[in-house]
Amino acid sequence: METMSPLEIFSAVFGLFVLAMIVASLIAWSVALRRLWQGDDILPLENRRPVGWGVDGVIVALGLVVLLANAASFIAQRAGWLELPKDPQTTPISLSDMSTLLSLEGGSRIVACGLLVVWLVALYRSSAIDLGFAVRRSHLVAGVLGVVALLPPIYLLQALLTVWWVEYEHPVLELLQESGDPMYLLPMALVAVVVAPLTEEFLFRVVLQGWLESKAMGGPENAFPVAGPSPGGDQVDFADPAAGEGGAPIVAMPTGATPDDVRRVPYWPILVSSLFFALAHLGHGPAPVTLFFLALGLGYLYRQTHSIWPSLLVHFSLNAITMIVAAVSMIVGEGL
Predict the structure, then answer these.
(1) Whole-angstrom distance, CA of residue 205 vs CA of residue 66
(2) What confidence tier does 168 reach under pLDDT thresholds 50, 70, 90?
(3) Is-contact 306 46, C-beta < 8 A?
(4) What pTM value is reported for the model?
(5) CA neighbor of 130 nearest in space, from 122, 39, 138, 187
(6) Which structural domain, as residue segments, surrounds residue 175?
(7) Which pLDDT does position 169 carry in this prediction?
(8) Start and end of every CAAX prenyl protease 2/Lysostaphin resistance protein A-like domain (predicted)?
(9) pLDDT tens digits, residue range 245-266?
């Protein structure tokens, strides 16, 4: 009996995984379309309080990310830990320097997000719910459903664009495959699978989309108790003036509004945050197009749950699968 090679074994297992994901995705989308046809939301919309920060939160976030990333790179170059080519077009960066640069960028992003959290809590008294960190079982379920529903069509779109339009490019993956050196795989995988999803979801979904939703809903100063189920299953009574206290769910309503004209969370912030998310990935072939559509799904998950965890789970899974395929391809020495 002929023994299967490691690549053949991985290809068989991965093929079964892909098949299972496709079937599960078709089922998930059939259920989703049925709910839409019946006039329901795909996922229930959780009531929330509009976040307290404004455009200043977005500006501070961008400033911290850019400032700390450049500061880390400058210090590393001055210390001799990093050497960047003067002309990247003619002299590509080495794998070791790319690994160092990614580690510095990842570390600076984590520090920037940490400082931003401190700033939002200190200035606006943002709670864990405002920051999207409160986790419930329903959020994890929504994340799993998002993985099943979003990843197969996103990978299919990426494949079609790669074949019919332009080849997918990612300098990190290309350097890894060209070098064949697994020593750099772990730090790069850590940045790609953990740091990038966490910081990007916090910046694009929580900070940017959260601010846009708050702006469209009138801001926290117009918040008013809303009748309906809270995430914990309790009802909030309009007649009770204290119903919004103690962390009860509240959304923005205009002055003098009644329970019949509660303004739902708008959809357009999803489009805006998705566009900026796609633009942040320019230079990776057709990736901005596929990531725009992915971000629409991620933004919808955030809109419905007001939590970072569902979109983070999807983003983490996407990057993890990509890195696993790249790692196996590099270690085995063959393309998949």
Answers:
(1) 18
(2) low
(3) yes
(4) 0.83
(5) 122
(6) 7-233+249-332
(7) 65
(8) 185-217, 267-321
(9) 343 344 444 433 333 333 468 8
